[in-house]
Amino acid sequence: MEHFRVEDLNALLSLSLEIIPALVFIHRGGNLLYVNRACEEVLGYSREEILNMPFWEIVHPEHREMVKERALKRLKGEMVPERYEMKVLCKGGVEKWFDMRVRLVDLKDGPVILASALDITELKEKEEALKQLNYELDKIVQDRTYKLLSLTKDMETLLYAISHNLKSPLRAIEGFAELLELSLKEVLSERDLHYLNNILHASRRMRKMLEDLSRYSKIGLKGVVIEAISVEDVLEDVLFNLKEKITSKNGEISIRKPIPHVKADRTLLELILSNLIDNALTYVSKDTSPKVEISAFQEGHYVVISIKDNGIGIPHKFREKIFDLFQRLHSEEEYPGTGIGLAIAKKAVELLGGEIRVESEVGFGSTFFVKLKGV
To answer: What class has domain 223-375?
Structure first.
């Protein structure tokens, strides 16, 4: 086997130090004893200039004391970090960042510090640009979130004011219309009775809409109390409240138990389930008895509650819009409602940190999925 002679190996190592891109230098805490060609090229000084200046002069003032302290401790044999980043002042005052790797080497005439440095200035500039971009993005998000919250609050205040202030005059219209119907029913013509019934019907529908609008604007105002909730217990209360509608519709509700507990506010969860089940009982073909299947499954740390019906279904293009306020796909004559129920459900789900979505096919029913944190 062929071996290198010591002098040849030393020559190769010396040449290697001169051609590598990393800066390599040696010092004992004062002037530099050795620098390679990369030091000249990167720092902008000649080798002679570098070797005739104290090492600390090229270290940026921000890091000078730290680097000096570590070097002196290292020369005394104390433990200090062998890798760190520092800024250097190049010729002409140009600042550059370096990734330093430093070792103590014992020689016959005493220990020396051997260091290599990689120029990471470009990387640091990109990091700084990224930090600035993140800061600006965070500020934009904060500003827009604040504006959105302010707008939402203003809208909810407006909705509450509208619903509250319209209740009294509407109650008066409905009351007087009922009195007219009672007192003049025998003397009014069929056409006049039709008009009067239209007034009653419109005022009752408006009252229901204002009640729903008021309910929507109040969601979360009293604070949201998150606790472990039994979905089965809430369903029991919801179905009891809907018992009359279920019976009149000849509806069938099936619950696949057990349903896992969730972290939620009981009032909000009741609102969600009540509106979804009520819709499932309402939006069915006129010759069809509603059938609603309620089940749930685990999805990681979440519980997904599924409410499946045999209703008329929802066209694909409306699957997102149905969760907006006042979105109705059918006339009042076809299916009574205010177009607020699903908006209430969505707002309540979002306040609980959950998600709501729907899968549907026209003529084959819909399945609503409510995703909430599990216990």
So the answer is: alpha beta
